[in-house]
Amino acid sequence: MSAFNKFKASVPIAWSPNLYITLVRGIPGTRRLHRRTLEALRLRKCNRTVMRWNTPTVRGMLQQVKKLVAVETEEMFKARKANEAEHRALRPPIVISHLPASATDSKQP
C-alpha cells in the first residue's frame, strides 16, 4: 500500500458539496470506457485536478475509474495545497565562499 493510500485511509471523510478529483495514473492502456469517463470528467493529463459537484452521477463515474483517480473533499484538498505551499516557501539563500581562509582573513580590518 502506498503512502498516499495509507494517508487516505487514515483521514475521516466528511461529506462535502465539492469533490476534487486528481488523475494519478496514465490514460494509455486503459479501456475505452474508462477513457471516455475521464474525458467526461475533463481529466486529460496526469496529476491534474478538477473540481466537480458531489452528485450521484459523478460518484458513479468515479466508481468506474477509482483505480485511476484520487478523490479528495474540499478540506483535504485545501490542507494538501497549504502543506505544498509551505514546503515551497522561500528560504534564505545559503552563501558559500570559495576563497581560501587566509584571503578572507586579510580583507577584514
UniProtKB/TrEMBL annotation:
Top-rank lineage group of the source organism: Eukaryota
Family, per entry: Belongs to the universal ribosomal protein uL30 family.
Keywords: Ribonucleoprotein, Ribosomal protein
Protein name: Large ribosomal subunit protein uL30m
Gene3D superfamilies recorded: Ribosomal protein L30, ferredoxin-like fold domain
Pfam families per UniProt: Ribosomal_L30
InterPro entries from the UniProt entry: Ribo_uL30_ferredoxin-like_sf (IPR036919), Ribosomal_uL30_bac-type (IPR005996), Ribosomal_uL30_ferredoxin-like (IPR016082)
Lineage start: Eukaryota, Viridiplantae, Streptophyta, Embryophyta, Tracheophyta
SUPFAM superfamilies given in the database record: Ribosomal protein L30p/L7e
Annotated Large ribosomal subunit protein uL30-like ferredoxin-like fold domain residues: 20-69
